[in-house]
Design goal:
Shape: globular
Structural class: alpha/beta
CATH class of the largest domain: Alpha Beta
CATH architecture of the largest domain: 3-Layer(aba) Sandwich
Number of domains: 3
């Protein structure tokens, strides 16, 4: 019989079962942790199991197939999930005793399975698995070893050329720290760091990006008083770099065309010292309300959020803005380490994205005043959504040119005006940005 999740493993089980039915684990995880009222420690354990199981899904299924006499496709869903969880904890997590990995998985099956024999099946498989932890079967393919579908491994190989695709796959399965941007409108890096440490959070300055911190041991971020007071916002270093590249200044007119959930708009507002005009748009009303809520929490008063379709022209904005940011909808293949279920998307629909991206970029370009900046970005690493979209745009818009910019850290000076950031090279999410300048009128 199903019960309301009230332990870390029960909550993780609930999220993983929902993911099988098509739910995005990121949003489901936050909802389940909140409703279960898990402690910070249990929230961290729940999150680690959820993400870890999804990051290693194909490998775990490979192991299940080696230790179970029942074929994968015939396992009851709850049994399958409990086996994945048990094997992940026993083989790939530190400080989880084998007996706990086994017994907790057995208890999950007792509560959720319709078959009274399922608990014995799970107990037998996991005990046998634990006895062989030092000599587990090794998969032959990178796809199974790193749990990326074969089509995705081949796609990354094509993108990297002679680059180390295995290093990328491993980075996608790593556990990155939570990166936050200090809200300089309300506090300083030094003060916020000290306060978070007093809360028991492990805090380190970002190794090369000023104003950002790396946090561990946070539990639920939203429960931290510093978060509630709007003293920081969660944002990967790669996304924060859009504000560095775009260089918004106080008094500017800035438009963020596809702004939700608002991180790039917030970074721009802080760089503008909350002075000027900032319009942040999204096509969905609920996402616009999310932007408004975030801006209010952070004390950003210059931001006005609107429901707008980035592909539809608004004549009132023609050549009005000093800076237009276009972080377009994309495949998301650069943020797999944060959202592991992205890797299991169907590849077919991804081919439609470049046309949509070019439409948004071309429309947004009409809003930039002569001499202004158009910044194009995605959270993917595919050339067809990145360099090729920008190149197609430049062929159609002779009044724009790429512009050199400089980023802190390993990326350095981007002489060609376009850069792809990689998790295994730069230590950030996979990300692309291009800085385009509209020529001055003659």
């Amino acid at each position: 019989m199903k019960q309301q999740p009230n332990t870390a493993r029960e909550a993780a089980f609930s999220v993983l079962e929902s993911a099988k039915r098509g739910a995005w684990s990121d949003g489901t995880l936050k909802s389940v942790i909140r409703s279960a009222k898990l402690s910070g420690r249990d929230s961290a354990l729940c999150s680690r199991i959820c993400y870890g199981v999804q990051q290693n899904q194909l490998l775990l299924d490979f192991w299940i197939s080696k230790f179970s006499r029942v074929p994968l496709e015939k396992l009851e869903s709850c049994v399958h999930t409990a086996l994945r969880m048990g094997m992940y904890q026993a083989a790939l997590m530190d400080r989880i005793p084998d007996r706990a990995a086994v017994s907790e998985s057995v208890e999950l099956v007792k509560r959720h399975s319709r078959n009274p024999n399922s608990s014995r099946l799970v107990n037998g498989i996991l005990r046998s698995f634990c006895r062989q932890l030092k000599a587990l079967p090794e998969p032959e393919s990178l796809s199974v070893k790193y749990s990326h579908p074969q089509w995705l491994v081949e796609l990354f190989q094509a993108e990297l050329g002679d680059g180390d695709v295995e290093a990328l796959l491993a980075a996608n399965n790593a556990q990155p720290p939570t990166t936050v941007q200090v809200n300089t409108l309300k506090t300083s890096e030094e003060v916020l760091s000290a306060q978070l440490r007093e809360q028991g959070v492990t805090v380190e300055p970002h190794p090369w990006l000023q104003g950002c911190l790396e946090l561990r041991g946070t539990g639920s971020l939203e429960e931290l008083p510093q978060f509630q007071r709007g003293e920081f916002t969660v944002q990967d270093a790669a996304a924060k770099l859009t504000a560095v590249a775009a260089a918004p200044r106080p008094g500017m007119r800035v438009l963020d065309v596809c702004a939700a959930p608002g991180g790039k708009s917030f970074a721009a507002a802080m760089a503008m010292e909350n002075e000027g005009e900032l319009i942040s748009c999204d096509v969905q009303g609920k996402k616009v309300r999310l932007i408004e809520s975030g801006a209010k929490r952070l004390g950003i008063s210059i931001l006005k959020a609107q429901v707008r379709n980035g592909r539809e022209f608004n004549p009132d904005w023609e050549q009005y803005f000093d800076l237009v940011i276009t972080d377009v909808p994309c495949s998301g293949l650069g943020i797999i380490r944060k959202k592991p279920d992205i890797r299991f998307k169907e590849p077919g629909p991804l081919g439609q994205l470049p046309a949509i991206q070019l439409d948004i970029l071309s429309n947004a370009a009409r809003y930039v005043k002569p001499g202004g900046v158009l910044l194009y970005s995605t959270c993917t690493v595919l050339k067809r959504e990145n360099q090729q979209v920008v190149s197609a745009f430049l062929r159609q818009n002779a009044d724009y040119t790429v512009e050199e910019f400089t980023l802190p850290g390993p990326a350095g000076t981007i002489s060609g005006g376009m850069v792809t950031l990689w998790p295994h090279i730069h230590g950030t999410d996979g990300f692309f940005m291009a800085k385009l300048r509209r020529r001055e009128s003659k």
